[in-house]
Amino acid sequence: MRIKMRKHLMKVEGLILLSVGVLGIFFILLGYENGPQLEKKHLKIIDFPTYSIPNLPHLSSIQGISKCQVNTSVESMIGFSSLPEHIKDFLRYRHCKAFPQILNSPMKCGGPAESHKVFLLLAVKSSPGNYERRAILRQTWGIEQTYSGAHVKIIFLSGTASNNKADKRMKKLLEIESQTYRDILQWDFKDTFFNLTLKQFLFHHWLEENCPGAQFIFNGDDDVFVNTFNAITYLRGFGQNGPDSHLFVGQLIANVGPIRESNSKYYVPEQVTTSNSYPMYCGGGGILMSRFTARAIYNQSIHIELFPIDDVYLGICLKRAGLVPASHMGMRTVGVRVPSDKLDAFDPCYYRELLMVHRFVPYEMLIMWKAIQDPHLNCGQRRGIYMVK
Ligand SMILES: *[C@@H]1O[C@H](CO)[C@@H](O)[C@H](O)[C@H]1NC(C)=O
Ligand SMILES: *[C@@H]1O[C@H](CO)[C@@H](O)[C@H](O)[C@H]1NC(C)=O
Ligand SMILES: *[C@@H]1O[C@H](CO)[C@@H](O)[C@H](O)[C@H]1NC(C)=O
Fold first, then answer.
1. In this predicted model, which residue has the larger pLDDT, 38 or 124?
2. Which residue ranges run through the membrane (predicted)?
3. pLDDT for 306-350, tens place per residue?
4. Which atom of ligand 3 is nearest to the CA of 292?
5. Which among 74, 110, 283, 363 has the fewest CB atoms less than 10 Å away?
6. Which pLDDT does position 350 carry in this prediction?
7. Contact present, 287 and 310 (Cβ < 8 Å)
8. What's the CA gap between 218 and 169, in Å, rounded?
């Protein structure tokens, strides 16, 4: 009898627990749907109330681009069958440069004619699942505001989730973010490492169509920390003609070539390129360029076939345009090395002097963004970080 009673109670308890669980999930889902909306109050007012997701018929008008078919003849290349899957895929789709745009923000820069009023456009490569990174960037170095006259805008560049199961949810997420913040560009291609060049190419195309006048462009990853104040000061230093002169700076990489070890993330086999050297390029974690150089890259990229590594591809485009990339000591794509291990690598004093650093997790972005603006931050003498290599 007692046992029966316990059993019965346990059944009831189970039922209660189950309903609590279901309710909980329900609320979590509700909260998830409303999450980005709730943050709206933190949003700087966006001046462009009209917004629609247009079709982009013009994409088909890019020279040499037609609806994309798998190139099956790559499979007859010598050694093809033993290549890693992602490289096989790259070769099969290498010629595909046009993909439908799922989400757009055509008025990001106020329209092409007004876009020259944007001083710095932050174009951040972000995979669909990186919601937290986008959320923190919008509150820190990517905040859309005016720095004594210099308008800053941010746009995130995304493909579709590479995992089919997550894809539907991620599409919904980006759609919500796009409706709330109008800062998402999403194209219908798989957001993978070897498709980053595609993302770069499609961004340049978008820029040309929607925001050709933006004076300078920061192009980088969503895990870098940018000292927006310093970047603006630096760019202002080029004066009136700065936007229309060549500028392409970052962490310069020279005298390297394709890695031929098949287990490396950067493995590029002979089937992709037989050349054993890369032109000079800047690490893709973060690059600053002028609108002149962005256009020159776009002009070339229309005719240059895709290369799996996006920053190398930019180097190839620059070379074809007869331009060279440059280095800036304040842009560290491989992180900061401090002179002594007695000092804290996270010391805001270092970041006060830098333009950009790889790689931060979201909470660090927030702390650092506040710290570099702290008027009471006491940095004493300069720490000579630029000399550390
Ligand atoms: C398909 O691949 C072959 C072999 O690499 C290449 O010669 C050809 O140009 C490719 N076709 C297209 C449309 O890119
Ligand atoms: C790039 O995206 C296309 C379109 O989604 C996909 O078919 C292809 O497999 C992707 N390529 C790589 C190398 O991931
Ligand atoms: C890009 O191409 C257009 C049209 O061919 C040309 O007018 C323009 O000068 C080029 N710009 C650069 C920066 O190369």
1. 124
2. 12-32
3. 999 999 999 999 999 999 999 987 877 555 555 555 556 677 777
4. 13
5. 363
6. 73
7. no
8. 29
The closest-lying atom of ligand 3 relative to the alpha carbon of residue 293 is 13
Ligand 3 close to Cβ of residue 295 (< 6 A): yes
CA 189 to chain CA centroid, Å, is: 15
Phi and psi at residue 283, in whole multiples of 5°?
-50, 130
Nearest to 376 by CA among 352, 342, 340, 346: 352
pLDDT at residue 211 greater than cutoff 60: yes
Q: Regarding the domain delimited by 57-327, which CATH topology (the fold level of the hierarchy) does it fall under?
A: Spore Coat Polysaccharide Biosynthesis Protein SpsA; Chain A (3.90.550)
Instruction: Quickly count helices (H) and strands (E) in the chain.
Output: 10, 14
Answer whether 0.70 is exceeded by the pTM.
yes
Q: For ligand 1, which residues put their CB under 6 angstroms from it?
A: 71, 73-74, 77, 95
CB-count burial class (<10 Å; 0-12, 13-18, 19+) for 52: exposed
Hey, whose CA ends up nearest to atom 7 of ligand 3? Answer: 299
The token pair that represents 349 in the structure block:
């004093």
Query: Using H for helix, E for strand and C for coil, what is the string for 106-158?
Result: CCCCCCHHHHHHEEEEEEEECCCCCHHHHHHHHHCCCCCCEECCEEEEEEEEE
Distance CA 102, CA 185 (A): 8
Q: How many angstroms does the Cα of residue 304 sit away from the middle of ligand 1?
A: 14
For the chain, domain boundaries: 57-327, 331-387
Lowest-confidence pick of 25-34, 43-52, 145-154, 203-212: 43-52
Is 86 touching ligand 2 by the criterion CB < 6 Å?
yes
Closest protein CA for atom 2 of ligand 1: 74
Contact (Cβ atoms closer than 8 angstroms) between residue 318 and residue 297: yes
Mutation choice for ligand 3 from 246, 248, 295, 317, CB with most ligand atoms inside 8 A? 295
225 strand-pairing partners: 357
Q: Judging by DSSP bridges, how do beta strands 184-190 and 150-160 pair with one another?
A: parallel
Report whether pLDDT(101) > 50: yes
Residue owning tokens 């078919």:
69
Q: Give the containing element (helix H, strand E) for 367.
A: helix 362-371
What's the CA-to-centroid distance between 317 and ligand 1, angstroms?
Answer: 21
Residue length, the chain?
389
